[in-house]
Amino acid sequence: MTPASPGRPGLGAIVGRVGERQQVARALADVKADGCRMLLVSGDPGIGKTRMLAELADLAGEAGALVLTGRAAEFERDLPFGLFLDALDDELENSGKAALEQLSPQQLQMLATVFPAAAHTNAAADTVPLPMVGPLADSSVERFRVHRAVRMVLERLAGDRMLVLLLDDCHWADAASVELLDHLLRHPPRCRTLIAVGLRPRQASARLTASLYSAEATMRMELVELEPLSRAETALLLGLRVGEIEELYASSGGNPFYAQALHRVGSKDPMPLALPLDTANGVPTAVAGALRNEFVRLPAEVRQVALAAAVAGESCSLQQAIDIGGLDEQQTVRAMEELERNDLIRLRESGQFAFRHPLVRAAAYLGATEQARVQAHRRAAAAAERRGWQVVERAHHIERSAQPGDYAAIAALTEAAAQVLDRAPAIAADWAASALRLLADSEDNTHPERRLELLTHRATALFMSGQLTASRGILHQLRRELPADPPVQRVAVAVACARVERLLGLYDEAYAMMRQTLDGLQPGYPDEEASLTCEIATLCLLRSEVEQAREWAIRGLALTTGSTLAARLHAAAAAGVLACAGKTADDVEHAASVLPSVVAAIDAAADEELALRLGAITGVVRAELALERFDDAIRHSARALAIARRTGQRQLVPNLLVDKSEAHYWRGQLDDAFSCAEDAAEMAHLLGVGELQVAASTALCRAAVVRGQLDAAIEAANWSVRASRAPDPYYAREALVQGGYARIVAGQPERGVQEILAAVGEGVRHLPASYRPWLFELLAYAEVRRHRLDEAQRWADAATEAAAVCRRRGAGFAALAHAHVLLGRGESAAAATAALSAAGDFAAVQMQISVGRAQLLAGEALARAGDRDGALAALGMAKDLFARGGAQQLLAEVVDAQRRLGARMRRAGGPAHPGNAGLDSLTTREREIASLIARGYSNKQVAERIFVSPKTVESHLSRIYAKLGVTSRTALALTVGNPDDPL
């Protein structure tokens, strides 16, 4: 047996394809020079995609690149991350230990859920998961974090080399692999990278196709479409004269694999009935027959071993063939030799056997009887269990061989579904469905609780894979099947269903279901009644029914008089709604009086206890945001996120991230706000949940405006409005307001005001009360810029009226609104007084960016009033706050104000004082970059050292310059001081 090249056995020279080979070489040269590229090799089955990718691998290897090759397999589409396992696991096992050791234990834990090689490292510590709780809960790690860990390990493996990642037959890729590929295309590894994808376009999923063709936003794509060979090229391929291949060429259509298959058996030989693969894969009937004929002529024992090799996977060891085929070693060896003599299988350098083409494997598998396939899979599952394989690795064999009523198989599939739920939820949903079928088809109906458990698992998996409508259907089915008494689980499922409907924008349907469930709830279940009431209050707020939301929130507070943790959490949720929808100051103070006991109860509770009530924490965080307890909101959302991630309550994570982003925003921590919003957007993208994506995009928009990313903010706002499907788009409305804010700042106040008023309407009655003062201050500011002082005064008065039912934040925005108007009227001293009053209100609740805005306005007013020293002090404070918070847009405004005032600035290049506040304003990463620049590193060298792109270094550097008030690298080095000393 002669081994061939690993991964591509027995490949000969390419015939023709001159232009396509030039495309491949050009793409590789572009990447080698600098940058990231994607190469899409597209064509029909057998057209030569694998051979073209092998050509690329040879060229890349000669250029010194790290070449990783993975191939998806038709019959292993339920193996999570199978495509990337094939590409990466051996490399990690053989030479990737050093790369893995550079990762944190948390990153290794994430990778260990995908790659066995990572699980074998000493640093991959075990974790003890918290108990699974309730519907839509049952996972451990967010898969976008797994994706980031994979990207990082690719960067570590590549080092200084070019990375060439070859992914073949991607049309068969499992859902988890498609998601990971999508992430890598949107966030390429930070090294010279070529991602080459081979696929059959007609068989590719819509998700895969969308990911591939949207990749041009982040990297240039080269499309290589392989066409049929000419007659002369086909003749050269077969070693025949052109005149000898007319009939064969007509049957093959110039497809090289088809031509070889027909030539192998003789194009004029009678063909048996076609295999199923002719319709499944678009293979011509004649070719399917030819492939079938290659096996029909073999002895039964040889066909049996061929089936065993097909069942084993993309490659097969001799021992696997023995175990799965059911023959002894001598018989199996003879059969394998016969298969190799007929060029059906080929030996790789690794000692594994592989079919010469996936279609040959399909012929070996589909040509066997159904009974033979079931028996082969049963033997495969048993052998894998004997060898200690994990249940996930055995599940696809169990699924294909189990019979109705096989409770061991049902238990195994249930366990496998739970294990892959986080990283491959679509596969988990399929395995749960298979377990349900085995249970439903059995004659034993004595385990109804198992069916309900499986339905819950399937609903969770469907939710996590973005199939919300299907998940909703199963949750409604659970509501019907769960026993009416006790109602605890039925209420939990109903609330979970309502939250799914919220994400679908089905507010009216969710509201009707909550009312129906509440009306049917018998007395004696206060926690359930409070849970339903609080959910109804939230739905009213989302439906812009502010008055009704207030009434339900008051009712909710009346129901939560107990001292249990559950009662406290429900009270906080109701308080959050009341703080937003309250009509009087008494409403707000009533809501505020609830929080101290809630905070104490949460802080005293163990994680395991909170995990059972985690959904209510989101209500607590919303209450803390409305009641200006931003640090508590950050702390509690961070704790809730950690618990949600550990217990698999992923449906809560995006909204918690959005809320945490808002808390950081109001505290003036814009980089943290943006980071949370990015994580929320990434997770929402994975889930494919429209309203979650809209909420995350809105959070990005909010942070982007003040950071000075005005174009990005406007784009995010427009996207949110287009994407929202809710009848009354709560988050999209806020996005439109933020987009209007961006336009005002960008010098388009008229259009900005129009967009804001289009979003909220002139009456603004449907807006939460806590939202109004900020909005009215913004409109007053815009109208002053439009020189419409009467309109500005009207909005300032509205802000004062709205502030009556708010706390310090509302008073601050009202004072700031009046300061804008006073300054516009030329009443500079009064404007400064009002602005400083606003600064005091904002400082009381630690809203640092708002303090800075007020100080900026005070500085401008004091300058006009002739108080130069007071103006400089106010502007200096504003500058420091903006620099620390990352508010680049406002930082630029204050620098302009200082220059207009003729502030005496430290000269660029002058020595920095050891106590320079500018250095203190740098983030950890900015300090690291500044230190490296001071040592003389170029942007590219810094990027390579800290594993980011040169563009990211450039972006950081611009912020560093602004914070330190320098304009050159030399000035930065002098400001930093001794480059050998740490910053």
TrEMBL record:
Keywords: ATP-binding, Nucleotide-binding
Protein name from the UniProt record: HTH luxR-type domain-containing protein
Family annotation (InterPro entries): AAA_16, P-loop_NTPase, Sig_transdc_resp-reg_C-effctor, TPR-like_helical_dom_sf, Tscrpt_reg_LuxR_C, WH-like_DNA-bd_sf
One Pfam family recorded for the sequence: GerE
PROSITE patterns: HTH_LUXR_1, HTH_LUXR_2
Residue ranges of domain HTH luxR-type in the record: 915-980
TM spans (from-to): none
Domain of life: Bacteria
Origin species: Fodinicola feengrottensis
